[in-house]
Amino acid sequence: MSICQKAITLTHNTIKFFSDMGVNVVVEHIFHHKEWVDECVELLHEYPVLFVHVICPVEELRRREKERGDRDIGRAEIQLQRGYSLDTYDITVDTHANSNKECADNIIEMLNYPNKFSAFKTLWSQR
Predict the structure, then answer these.
(1) Is residue 74 one of the residues assigned to a domain?
(2) What percent helix, strand, coil does the chain show, rounded to 5?
(3) Is 91 a residue whose pLDDT tops 90?
(4) Angle at CA 120, nearest 5°, toward 116 and 124?
(5) Phi-psi region at 82: left, alpha or beta (left = phi > 0; alpha = psi -120 to 50)
């Protein structure tokens, strides 16, 4: 197992550990490989996971990187290209079409309906 895979496995197990301890966590995670998705879903499919898909046009990502001045230009585009594509999420937010506040408000509103957190359960059943 590569050091990268070990770090990802540790991350997934840490999320599970915090959840087992009753601690709610927010995790930003780009799944670069199907195996990463599979492992995360295997560990957490019985947990109340709200699986959020964040989208933004690549042109806007490039603009933001340049504007911020502290980013490696092109990194966001590379992450988009390397990311493992899924069709199953609980909610999708568009950070270009909506403000950060609107995106956050949509996610927060969804938290009121944990019975709708079904993406990981669906992914688990499709394996």
Answers:
(1) no
(2) 55, 5, 40
(3) yes
(4) 130
(5) alpha
